[in-house]
Amino acid sequence: xxxxxxxxxxxxxxxxxxxxxxxxxxxxxxxxxxxxxxxxxxxxxxxxxxxxxxxxxxxxxxxxxxxxxxxxxxxxxxxxxxxxxxxxxxxxxxxxxxxxxxxxxxxxxxxxxxxxxxxxxxxxxxxxxxxxxxxxxxxxxxxxxxxxxxxxxxxxxxxxxxxxxxxxxxxxxxxxxxxxxxxxxxxxxxxxxxxxxxxxxxxxxxxxxxxxxxxxxxxxxxxxxxxxxxxxxxxxxxxxxxxxxxxxxxxxxxxxxxxxxxxxxxxxxxxxxxxxxxxxxxxxxxxxxxxxxxxxxxxxxxxxxxxxxxxxxxxxxxxxxxxxxxxxxxxxxxxxxxxxxxxxxxxxxxxxxxxxxxxxxxxxxxxxxxxxxxxxxxxxxxxxxxxxxxxxxxxxxxxxxxxxxxxxxxxxxxxxxxxxxxxxxxxxxxxxxxxxxxxxxxxxxxxxxxxxxxxxxxxxxxx
Length: 463
Ligand code: HEM
Hints:
Helices cover 49% and strands 11% of the residues. It is built from 18 helices and 12 strands. The protein has helices at residues 23-32, 63-72, 81-91, 100-110, 116-119, 123-141, 149-166, 175-188, 194-197, 209-235, 244-250, 262-292, 295-309, 316-319, 323-335, 367-371, 390-393, 414-431; strands at 47-52, 55-60, 77-79, 147-148, 342-346, 350-352, 355-357, 362-365, 432-435, 444-447, 449-452, 457-462. Strands 1-2-8-5-3 form a 5-stranded mixed beta sheet. A 3-stranded antiparallel beta sheet has the order 4-12-9. It has a two-stranded antiparallel ribbon with strand order 6-7. Helix 6 (123-141) runs parallel beside helix 18 and helix 12 (262-292) packs parallel to helix 18. It is globular and about 60 Å long. Protoporphyrin IX containing FE is lined by residues 79, 95-96, 107, 271-272, 275-276, 279-280, 283, 338-339, 342, 403-405, 409, 411-413, 416-417.
């Protein structure tokens, strides 16, 4: 039985502590789930400054302050070493991590592969992955059981990244092993350990470090094999390929003629696999949860998908017209941003709002908190996709909704992710209805990304 529809669904989340936690309490919360460390008052403030274990931290939850750090004063900051620690072991020379000239070169080199016109050819793979996911979920539900939609969405977005990065025809690419390695990486290296908070050097092993290293080795091995395979194909007279890897191999710096080194290529393959599929899977998983609580929104989606694409496969130019789908995905990423926060470190003296910072100060851009700020949103805890209708979005500060970051280092895969999520959501909504289990309570937990603790079991019924 599906739950009764509600006009405005207020989904569950972590209840913030009433007051700021003590140092010991904050440390325990950060290790368990950083969301539990952000207290009530933060949801009403633009910023908060605190000294924590000898470091000056500025937490910001205001669009104008976000703009100052991520755009206006970009040269005064670098990506925070604290946050980089989580990703550097896997993707040290990839776009997500590098800085300065190397970053500018890589961003220029990768940009054409993510341009609007280049995206169209990827849509059929996205739509096909959505169809397959819908069929799998309906088959799983046939036994009367609830279906955990997180692994289903992860499989769908993984299929998409494998197809669009490597063309989907690379026999050396062991999808299951790579998917397992990504999960292993997130569950081990992705966790904040007490040792990190205490500033312990990297050579002191963190719990799970061995499993994390194995996961990195597996990811790098898969990327190296994919690269070697493509090189062999080209040497055998084949073409570079029209997928993301082929386009990165072909890329040359217009000024110096330099191409990406093998290490840069390998680390970017791992970056696109890591940054590119789990995040989108989470955006979809949280969307399905919210829709399960709002039957009317599901009906609107199904009607829009049918009006735009009929019963056939969704075509590239049609995905762009799935406007309500995009609103739902935006609202899901407001409430449950897959990237909960981004962090920067001041490299020179700089003023952020009314705060003077010295080099070494850490600025935490708390996207999750800003997205639920009572200063910025009406009924911030309610699911209301019409917040993103053109009329209601007009006049809102453009940094108030920031699931993909902002400024020059905004996510390069943003358009890719919107197209992918809309294509997959449309495929699912045309075939299925989703509903909540009566006693299910969603518990978002931050582990690099914002994941539902214990998965996301939903009731699935054929439409
Ligand atoms: C819903 C899905 C996604 C979300 C929420 C997301 C979120 C983000 C965020 C917040 C950043 C900025 C990090 C910072 O400023 O420190 C970022 C950067 C990045 N993302 Fe995404 N992302 C998504 C999908 C993708 C996809 C599909 C790809 C590639 C196929 C991708 C590749 C990257 C890369 C390479 C960067 C680094 C860009 C740079 O520094 O120039 N992401 N992403």
